[in-house]
Design goal:
Elements (H helix, E strand, L loop, with lengths): L5 E10 L2 E11 L4 E5 L6 H8 L7 E6 L2 E2 L5 H7 L1 E3 L12 H9 L6 H14 L15 H13 L5 E5 L7 H16 L3 E5 L3 H7 L2 E6 L2 E6 L1 H5 L2 H8 L3 H4 L7
Parallel strand pairs: 3-8, 3-9, 6-7, 7-8
Antiparallel strand pairs: 1-2, 1-4, 4-5, 9-10
């Protein structure tokens, strides 16, 4: 069996007396769209922060492409091909769309001409080709989400971590972004996404991991996950699976 692109082994994260991630272990296969779901406060974004190097695990190891990357700095992980987006878009507000994307492109393109050409190509791929000269501060929420995607894609990642990229969008905007996420996978980038929009998860994900109280409590296909009593309990509370006809009262 092929080595997963990302492997997390018994990772914990403590903030004082709070155990935000509790001995979580998971694997993300190369070339898949994998979803990480769970209730608010489950530790999903904290886990992303550790994978991307913004936070160091208190315990456990993180492996990427067979190498131990535990505690590596974000800029070093970017050079290895790991990119992430943030729940709240954080562009350089005073810079243009083109400049925001080009900053990441310089990682792979040394010349200004090549970096800006790559930025233009990525902008067109995410639907921002007609807004290259517009300031990031003047974009709509939907356009900011696209810019967040573009900035991550600019480093030409092998693995992209999408943190609630659909949050705050209306149904029409979500429908427009879903094909873009599929296209990221099609271009050869492995996708790990945190998402609360379950219809999008069902549509996009080939494999789903469920985090609750910092622990991975279930994994499988989207269809299996939606019928899993432990997942129903995590989202809806004790006794919910039994009340829903699942015959479970754990």
């Amino acid at each position: 069996m092929a080595e997963p692109l990302l492997r997390i082994e018994q990772v914990c994260k403590r903030f004082g007396g709070l155990l935000a991630v509790d001995h979580a272990s998971l694997a993300v296969e190369t070339g898949r769209i994998t979803a990480l779901i769970g209730p608010n406060g489950a530790g999903k974004t904290t886990l992303f922060a550790m994978i991307a190097g913004f936070s160091r695990p208190s315990e456990g190891r993180i492996f990427y492409a067979g190498a131990d990357i535990t505690g590596s700095a974000p800029h070093l992980l970017a050079r290895r091909g790991i990119a992430r987006t943030f729940q709240i878009a954080q562009p350089f507000a005073g810079l243009s769309v083109e400049d925001n994307i080009a900053i990441g492109s310089y990682l792979s393109h040394r010349s200004r001409t090549d970096a800006r050409a790559a930025a233009g190509r990525i902008a067109r791929e995410v639907g921002l080709g007609d807004q290259l000269k517009r300031r990031a501060a003047d974009l709509t929420l939907s356009a900011l989400k696209r810019l967040e995607l573009a900035r991550a894609l600019a480093i030409e990642p092998r693995l992209i971590l999408l943190d609630e990229v659909l949050a705050g969008l209306n149904p029409s905007e979500i429908r427009d972004l879903v094909p873009l996420i599929r296209a990221i996978r099609t271009r050869g980038t492995t996708v790990l996404l945190i998402e609360h929009v379950m219809q999008a998860v069902m549509s996009l994900a080939e494999h789903v991991l469920v985090l609750a109280e910092g622990r991975v409590i279930a994994e499988g296909s989207p269809q299996a996950i939606t019928a899993n009593p432990r997942v129903i309990e995590a989202y809806l509370g004790h006794g919910a699976a039994r009340r829903a006809g699942g015959g479970y009262d754990g």
